[in-house]
Amino acid sequence: GALLVSERIDREELCGALSPCSLSFEIVVENPLELYSGAVEIQDINDNDPVFPSSQARLEISESVAAGARFPLESAQDPDVGINSLQTYQLSTNPHFVLDVQTRVDGSKYAELVLEKELDREEQRELRLVLTALDGGSPPRSAHVQIHIDVVDANDNAPVFNQSTYKASVRENTPSGTLVAKISAYDLDDGPNGDIVYSFSSHTPAKVRELFALDSATGELRVKGQLDYEETKLYEIYLQAKDKGAVPGVAHCKVLVEVVDVNDNAPEVTVTSVYSPVPEDAAPGTVVALLSVTDLDSHDNGLILVQVSDVNDNAPKSSQDSYDVYVLENNMPGIPILNVSATDPDLGRNAHLSYTLLQGDPTVGHIFSINRENGTLYLLTSLDHEDQVEFSMMVQVQDGGSPPLATNVSVSVFVTDLNDNAPTVLYPHPNTTTTYTDVVAPGTPAGHMVTKVVAVDADGGYNAWISYTLLQATDPSLFSVGLHSGEIFTARQVQEDEPPQHTLVILLKDHGEPVLSTSATVSISVAEMVKEVFTDLTDVAPANDPRRHVTFYLILAVILVSAAFFITMLSVGIFKCYKWRQSKELFNSSRSTLYRTPGPFHHIDAVRGGFTPPNFYHQVYLTTDSRQSDLLCKKPFTSSPLGSRQSTMRNGEPGLYHQIVGTAGRLPTPAE
C-alpha cells in the first residue's frame, strides 16, 4: 500500500503558477470492495531565481517633473510560488528617488520609482540606479537590473487618461482580433508635444503581451492569443500614453480583463472494472464498475448532467373538468368559442397533446369542430335557440405516449336567445279568408270580455313577453284591450244605436331589443240574436262566394258531432264506474271468505262441484292485496271438474296457493 515517487517531480512544470499544486489518485481495495480517493500536494522549494526581462532599463525624465511623480519599472518574474516567489524590490541609495512596491490582485509584486527631490539637468544630466528583486526563500534568491535615467528639458503638459482603471470581460474562446477595451487620453500641448502614442507599460509581463495587442494610435486593446479560463481568470494590464515631445510626457492607466469560462472541456470519465465478466448469477446490487468523472470547467459548466429518460406515466390534466359556454344564436359560422386547455408533465412526445371530439351525438360532429393541436373549439354552422337550447359533448385529450394516456373533458354549449322572432297570432288566424266575427249584444255593460287575441312568440324569456295595444278601431271609445292578456273588453255600455259592425286592429309587441311587432284584426258585431250575426256575415261575404250556402250546414254538423261525442264519452264513463263497483264488491266478499273458517260450502268447493259459472270462476281467483280484477291466465273451459281444478292450480298465482294451504291445513291430493 505504499505510494512511491516514480520520477523527478517539477512543480513549475506540472502546475505553473497554480497553487496549491496537487495530483489526485484513486485506490480500489477488494474483498471487501472499497474505494479511496487521495491527493498528493506538490510543495514548492526555492529553486528558481527572479528574472528581469532585460539587464538594464532606460528612462527619460524632464527636469520640470514635480516631486511625487511616479515611474513604473519592469517587473521581475519568479516561477516559484508562495513564500518562494518574488516578495520585494530594493533600490540603490540616491538623493532623488525612492522605491514604492505595489501588489497586484493576483498577489504578484511590481515596483515604481517615486521622485522625492526634483531633478536639475544643469546639476546632473543622468542618474544610474540598481533595482534588486528578492524572493522569500531562505536564503533569498535575487536578480538585478541597471536603471539609466536621462534628465531632459521640460514638456509643459503630460497626457491625461479619462479614467485610471478600465474593466472588461471576454469569453475564453474569444477569437483573435476581438476588441476588449479602448483607452483614451488627451494632451493640452500642440504639435508633437500633443500627439499621443499608446503602449504597454514597461512592467507588463511578456505573457500579457503575447495574449493582447494594443493599437498605438487608437488605444484599442484587442485579443491576440488564445485565452484560457482554467489557466488565468483575470489579467491586470498596465498601459501608458506618451506624447511626442522632446521630453515626452507620460500617463499611466490599468485595464482589468476578466476571462469568462465557457464549456470547452469535455468530462473525463475513468472506469475501473471490478467484475469482468459479470457472473450470470450475480445478485442485484453487485458493483460492476466504478466511475470517476472530472471536468476542468467551472460552475455549471463543470457539473455532470445525468439525463433521466421519461416514461409516459402522467395522463393529460385539464385546467377544468367541465366547461360551460354561452353562444348567441344566429352566430357567424366558423367562429372559435372555447379553448380547451390541458398540460402533461411528461417530456417530448409523451407530453404532445392532441384533442378530439368523442362522437356520442352524431349531430355534434356536424355542428362543432376542434383543432387537434391546440384544443380550440369552433362552430361550423349558425345556431338557433328556438331549434335547440343546449349541446353536450365530450372532448378527449390524449398524449403521444405508447401506450397513450387520455383525459375526457365535458363541454356544454348553451345557445342564448336573441329577439329574432316577431309575435305570431293564433287567433284570429291571419292567413285565412274566413272572417272571425265575435258578437256583443246591445246593453252589454262596461268591462265585459268580448273576445281574446291569442298569440305566441318563439323566443324565450323576456323576448317572448307580448304586450297588446289598440291601434285602430271603428269606435275607439267602445272597446279596450288588456295590455298583457290580449283580452278585449267593452269600455262602456253598448248602446242600441251602435254601428252593427266594428273592426279593431290590435298591435302586438314583444319586449326584445330591438322590439318586433305584428298586428291582428278582430271583427265584432253588435246584434241581439245569432241570426242577425249570420245575416251580417252574409252581407259582408263576397257575392260570388260559392260556400255561402253551406255555412249553416257546416255549423250544424259540428254541433251534432260534438253532441254525439259527449253522449258517447258519458256512456263509457258510466259503464266503467259500474264495472269498478262490481269488482270492488267481489273483492270484499272474496277477501272475507279467505280469512274465515271454511264452511260447508267454500268457494273452492263451489269450483270443484261445478256450481260456479266460468265468468265468476275467473273473478274470484285474485291476490289478496289486489285492488283490480286481474284474471288468471285463461284456458279453454273444460267440462271435467278435475281438468278445471288442475288447470286452475297450475296457472293460479302463488298467493292463492298459499292461502289454500293456510285454510285447509294440508296440501291438495291428486284427486282433489
UniProtKB/TrEMBL annotation:
Q: Where in the cell is it found?
A: Cell membrane
Which Gene3D superfamilies does the record match to this protein?
A: Cadherins (2.60.40.60)
Q: Main localization of the protein? A: membrane
* Segments traversing the membrane: 552-575
Keywords of the record, alphabetical order, are: Calcium, Cell adhesion, Cell membrane, Glycoprotein, Membrane, Repeat, Signal, Transmembrane, Transmembrane helix
Quote the SMART domains the UniProt record gives.
CA (SM00112)
Name one process (GO BP) from the record.
homophilic cell adhesion via plasma membrane adhesion molecules
Q: Which InterPro entries match?
A: Cadherin-like_dom (IPR002126), Cadherin-like_sf (IPR015919), Cadherin_C (IPR032455), Cadherin_CS (IPR020894), Cadherin_N (IPR013164), Protocadherin/Cadherin-CA (IPR050174)
Q: Which GO terms describe its molecular function?
A: calcium ion binding
Q: Tell me how this protein sits in the membrane.
A: Single-pass type I membrane protein
Pfam family, any one: Cadherin_C_2
Query: Where does the source fall among the domains of life?
Result: Eukaryota
Limits of the Cadherin domain: 53-161, 162-269, 319-425, 432-544
Q: Which GO terms describe its cellular component?
A: plasma membrane
**UniProt name for this protein:** PCDGK protein
Q: Organism, per UniProt?
A: Calonectris borealis
Phylogenetic lineage: Eukaryota, Metazoa, Chordata, Craniata, Vertebrata
